[in-house]
Amino acid sequence: MAFYTNALRRSGDLPSNINFFMNVPVTPEGGLQFADGISAPGRYVQLRAQMDVLVLISNCPQLNNPCNAYNPTPIQIQIWEAG
C-alpha cells in the first residue's frame, strides 16, 4: 500500500471518485442534492483494469446519510486475474 500511496504523491495523479451507490444530482443552481439511491439488490457494475490500479471501495457506511434509508448494506466484490 505504501508503494501506491507514494506513487500517487509523487505523480500528483489523483482522479475524481466514481459513485455507484448514491444518487447526488446537481441542481439547476449548481448545488448538490442527496436523493434516494438508484442501486438495488442484484444489480452490478463490471470494470476492467488495463493496468495496475489502486481501488478504494465504500458502500455508504455513513449512518447519518439518507442513502439506503439510513441502513447501509453489504456489497460483494469479485476480482479475476488476467488469464
Please describe what this structure looks like:
This protein has 1 helix and no strands. It has one domain. 12% of the residues lie in helices and 0% in strands. The protein has one helix at residues 2-11. The model has no long low-confidence stretch (mean pLDDT 76). The protein is largely without helices or strands and 83 residues long. The protein starts with a helix and ends in a 72-residue tail after the last helix.
Q: Brief description of this entry?
A:
The protein is largely without helices or strands and 83 residues long. It is 12% helix and 0% strand.
Largest sheet: none
- The mean pLDDT is 76
* Total helical segments: 1
Order of helices and strands: H
Share in β-strands: under 5%
Q: Return residue spans where pLDDT drops below 50 for at least 5 consecutive residues.
A: none
Structural class label: little secondary structure
DSSP E strands, number: 0
Distance between the termini: 24 Å
Q: Which value, in Å, is the CA radius of gyration?
A: 16 Å
Shape: extended
Domain count: the total is 1
What quaternary form is this?
Answer: single chain
Please give the share of residues in helix. 10-25%
